[in-house]
Amino acid sequence: MKDFLERTAKSPTPGLQAGALSLSGILVQGITHCAPATAILFTIPFIVDKAGVAAPFAYLAAFVIVLVLGVSLNQLAKLFPSAGGYYTYISRTVHPRAGFLTSWLYFLYDPTTSGYSLAFMGYVLQEALWSEYHLRCPWWAFFLVSGSFVGFVSYRGIELSKKLLVLLGTGEILIVVALSLWGLLRPGAGGINLISFDPRRAPSPNGLALAIVFSLFALTGWEAVAPLAEESMNPKRNLPRAILGSIFAMGVFLVLSSWGLLVGWGTQDVRPFAESVENPTFVLAKRLWGGWWILVLLALLNSMLAVAIAANNAGTRVWYAMARSGSLPSWLAKIDPRYRTPVHAVILQVVTMAAVGLGLGAWLGPEREFDFMGLVVTFSLIFVYSAGNIGVFLHYLRERRSEFNWILHFIFPLFGTASLLWVGYASLNPWPERPVSYVPVVVGTWLVIGLGVLWILKRRGKEDWLERAGDIMAERSDGLAGESRHPVPEKVRANVPGRD
């Protein structure tokens, strides 16, 4: 197997399928990676528990914070279109080693998302079908079927992924929006009102603050458009638009859907909503739609499948770009000549998906795995997003001083980073119970391993990748054509061993 991988990696192959995605295709990648149905149906009970009837305001405040993060990322996305995403951004703006570590922590995010998402969806399906219809559907059986499907789609190419993401994403959004509108048309006790947008209605300022903190990561996923740069039309224009478009779409969706769901339940007393043993959105759907409540379960199924496909798209492209630069094994850069997908990266992704989904699911249980990995992702993204903010500031201060804008390139990155650090603090205060309490150790250990990899590469003199880590692709009017060397700044290049 090793000989086969090395042999095929050396054979001449085409690059990724340039120009395959229009703005709408990139946009749907960002929206579905946010998992709209999952983001609202699984987070709203917790947000209501903390913010009470003011939960929609918490989503609104989180939307504003995430918008600031998106504006900061746009400053890099419009300059450095690459399948590497943050790997390229941080390598170009801070240092290649920082870019490697940022991507190393990013590996805890996208490459794991499909695994724990499908495992948890299998658990939800297992419990719902048994409770309502006494049908047995083991979570692991659902995982095997859905995981095989997601792996097949990842291999078959970006165009098939795009079509399925449009279908699945549209379905989940329409179902949740329909339930929310139904709630507004048939409101519970309290009728239609706007008290949900009054922060003074929250039980306490601290509760509202926690609700805002945990609403932030209901909006994650918009950054997943960056690794599709080399398969996009006019990425310097369309990627920034897709990033902000994803954030706007998700922000509006979460705010309006949470309002409609609470009004439908009844704003007079939302405590039973937060304390419901069964997911309260299922309870509301059964009251409003009767047996058609199953559509909400279908929305969650669509959502989990879509986010798994979108996460695999992003994760495999980052692995491909890193392998192409030389910081990961070269066989990961192998492109399938027919489907133009990074075939070896897809294989590695499927293995990772199975290890996370089935391995952690069997050890912790799929429901606890979801909570555990959710916090792992939270801490990895704090590092990744913060690194991007630092990169924005340093690049415009050092390389584009004439374009430096104190609001866009200092205030926004500073505010965004401070918000992320606040998220980390709130996630650990009070200290969570086991196994979630092990998350800081897991993330810290993974970071140390990444540092060890960098040390080994340096000791072995394998650091020529430092000069290639910031490479981006040359742009034509019809998209990205081929690789063009755009070396990292001279200050960084001077540190590459063996350079004259």
Could you give the topology of this structure?
Blueprint: H1 2-10, H2 23-33, H3 36-41, H4 44-51, H5 55-77, H6 86-93, H7 96-106, H8 110-133, H9 139-156, H10 158-185, H11 205-216, H12 235-265, H13 271-275, H14 280-289, H15 294-325, H16 343-364, H17 366-398, H18 406-428, H19 439-459, H20 465-468, E1 472-476, E2 479-484, H21 490-493
Helix pairs in contact: 2-10, 2-12, 2-15, 4-11, 5-11, 5-12, 5-17, 5-18, 6-7, 6-17, 7-17, 7-19, 8-9, 8-15, 8-16, 8-17, 9-10, 9-15, 9-16, 10-12, 10-15, 11-18, 15-16, 16-17, 17-18, 17-19
How does this structure look, described?
This protein is mainly alpha-helical and 500 residues long. It is 69% helix and 2% strand. The chain has helices at residues 2-10, 23-33, 36-41, 44-51, 55-77, 86-93, 96-106, 110-133, 139-156, 158-185, 205-216, 235-265, 271-275, 280-289, 294-325, 343-364, 366-398, 406-428, 439-459, 465-468, 490-493; strands spanning 472-476, 479-484. It has a two-stranded antiparallel sheet. A hairpin with a 2-residue loop joins strand 1 and strand 2 (479-484). The radius of gyration is 22 Å and the shape is globular.
Figure out the total of helices: 21
Q: Which architecture name does CATH use?
A: Up-down Bundle
The major sheet is characterized as: 2 strands, antiparallel
What is the C-alpha radius of gyration, as a whole number of Å? 22 Å
What gap, in angstroms, lies between the N and C termini? Answer: 39 Å
CATH topology: the name is Amino acid/polyamine transporter I
What is the succession of H and E elements?
HHHHHHHHHHHHHHHHHHHHEEH
Mass-distribution shape = globular
CATH class bucket: Mainly Alpha
Strand content is: under 5%
Assign the CATH superfamily: Amino acid/polyamine transporter I
